[in-house]
Amino acid sequence: MNPDLVRLGFTPSFAGHFAALALTEGAPSRLPARVITEHRGAYRVHDGTIERWAVITGRLRHEAKSPLDMPAVGDWVVLDEMPDAEGRAVIQAILPRRTAFVRRAAGVDKKPQVVAANVDRVFLVASLNRDFSPRRLERYLALARESGADPVILLSKADLVDPGPAIEEASAVARGVPIHASSSMTGEGVELVRDYLKDNATGVLLGSSGVGKSTLINRLLGEDRLATSPVRDEDDKGRHTTVRRELVVLPSGGVVIDTPGMREIGLWDTGAGLDEAFDDVAALAATCRFSDCRHEKEPGCAVQKAVAEGALPAERVTSYKALQKEGERLEALSDNRSRAEIMRKNRVIARAVRAHAQMHKKRS
C-alpha cells in the first residue's frame, strides 16, 4: 500500500473495501482519500499526496436517508479526480466505517451527527478546574463505548490543580478505562497521548470548550498551528476557538481529530454502550427478580439492594436511569418518525394510483 496513505490511517481492510467500490464505479480516475474537514457542504480531503476540496455526487446526496449517510471527518471515501465545473474533486462513495462517534445534534431537530469516524482512541478531556463532572464523564463514556473505539480519560491542567481527587472520582465511574493527568504547559501526559497514536492510529479529542484540546494538539505538532483562547477567569469556561472538526496529521505518526467544545452531549443510540459504561449497574440489573425492573421500589431489585448496602453509589444509579430514559424517548421518537415517513410514502403512492385511475377512466 501507498505509505503516504498508511500514515493517514489506511489499512488493508479499507484497501479491500476501496478496491470493491472502485471496481463497481468502474472508472480509472478513482482513488482513496480521507476527509479532513467539512465546511458548508464541501469537504477537504487528503489522498496521501495533496489536500483538495471535494463535493459529493447528487446520487449520494439523494440516497442518504439521514446525516449518518453523509461524509464525516475521518471517513475514507472513493474520490474521482476528474473535477466538477468548479474544479472540485467528486466523492463517489463512502467506505464502510470501522467505528463512529455519534451524538444527537444540538437543536430542535434532534438528528444524529457523526462527530468522528474510523477512530481508534477517544480521548475524553476534562479540565481539573470547575469543568470536571463525573456525571458528564459518564455520558461521554456511554457514547464512546457505543462508538466501538477505546476511551481514554485525560484530566487536563494538572499544573494548576492536584489531580489526585479527580482521578479517584473518575476511576469510580470509568471502570477499566485508562486515566491520565495532563498539562500542556508542563508537557505532562503529552508523550502518553503520542504513544496511544503510534502505528498510525487515529484519535479524537472530545470535551468542553477551554479544556485544552487544541493546545494539546499544538504540543503534539511541536508548533502553534491551531488557534487557542484562554478560559474566562470568572467561571473557568472556555471560548469556542475551534469552530469545526478537523483531522490533523502528526509528524511523529498517527492522526488526531480536533473538535469544538460540546455544550450538549445528547445520546443517539444507547445500545450496548450504556451497559458497558455502567457495567456494574448492568450486572446487578441482570439479577433483579423481574426482567423489566425499573430499579425503584420493585421487590427483589438487586440494584436498590446494592445501594442500600452502600455497595453502589445512588448517584450512579440515578445517572444510569436518566440516560436509559433518554435513550427510550429517542427510540420512541425515531419510531414515530419512521411511521410518519411510511404514512407519507403511502399517501404519495395512493395519490399516484388515484391519478392513474382517473386518467385511465377519461381515456375510456
TrEMBL record:
GO biological process, one term: ribosomal small subunit biogenesis
Keywords: Cytoplasm, GTP-binding, Hydrolase, Metal-binding, Nucleotide-binding, Ribosome biogenesis, RNA-binding, rRNA-binding, Zinc
Keyword Nucleotide-binding: yes
Cofactors, names only: Zn(2+)
Residues spanning the signal sequence: none
EC number: 3.6.1.-
Transmembrane segments: none
Gene3D superfamilies, per database record: P-loop containing nucleotide triphosphate hydrolases (3.40.50.300), Probable gtpase engc, domain 3 (1.10.40.50)
SUPFAM superfamilies, per database record: P-loop containing nucleoside triphosphate hydrolases
Domain spans labelled CP-type G: 106-265
InterPro entries in UniProt: G_CP_dom (IPR030378), P-loop_NTPase (IPR027417), Ribosome_biogen_GTPase_RsgA (IPR004881), RsgA_GTPase_dom (IPR010914)
UniProt feature coiled coil, ranges: none
Subcellular location(s) of the protein: Cytoplasm
Domain EngC GTPase: 117-263
Role played: One of several proteins that assist in the late maturation steps of the functional core of the 30S ribosomal subunit. Helps release RbfA from mature subunits. May play a role in the assembly of ribosomal proteins into the subunit. Circularly permuted GTPase that catalyzes slow GTP hydrolysis, GTPase activity is stimulated by the 30S ribosomal subunit.
Official protein name in the record: Small ribosomal subunit biogenesis GTPase RsgA
Protein species of origin: Polyangium spumosum
